[in-house]
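Are you able to produce any protein sequence you like plus the matching backbone structure tokens because I've never seen that pairing?
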Amino acid sequence: MQDHILETQNLCKSFKHHTAVNKVSLAVPRNSVYGLLGPNGAGKSTMLKMIAGMLHPDSGSILIQGREWTRKDLSRIGVLIEAPPLYENLTARENLKVRTLALGLPDSRIDEVLTVVDLTSTGRKRAGQFSMGMKQRLGIAIALLNQPELLILDEPTNGLDPIGIQELRELIRSFPGQGITVILSSHMLSEVEQTADHIGIIAGGVLGYQGAVTHGQDLEALFMQVAAAHRREGASHA
């Protein structure tokens, strides 16, 4: 039986008259990279915000290691959703120092996470002068400070150049070997294909497919099939 660090059961979330997430049941294996794929507006960010405690589900449940999610579980979760939360007038080290003080963590964590994301040589350079890729890596460093078992990354390669994408891909692939499970959301098929061990495809708020990434799999055809089916389903209920 597969060991799942995270499961959601029939998770639902609506905003006014729009159903953003409709009875989604994810199963995320421990020490893996789980790619949550879907078109823009499919419900990916809403799903991740519920798991991260930023939104409250209307119904359904979230299980962490087989137990009902509580706010105490946030100490096990690292999150980078939307733009990295940086003080642009501070250095990388100073940004991390602010967080260690707030979280009551030792300064030793600063050097540890800077090493993980390869930002040890930025010196006095302020975060506002960083490239987009460096900002993303600093955002991940902040998310890693509390030594999470689960790391949530929402569209982390948005706006990056090919070198930045490659560097971030290698960093994300290294995490399962360090005991960190990653949930990675993206609308970029090639990115998920090269990074994830398992995928879920969400369209119109519905999880249309979930399974392991297999060699030779035509992910584009599968994605289009799921997206088209749930687009038709949404239209039929309009």
Notes: The two ends are 40 Å apart (CA to CA).
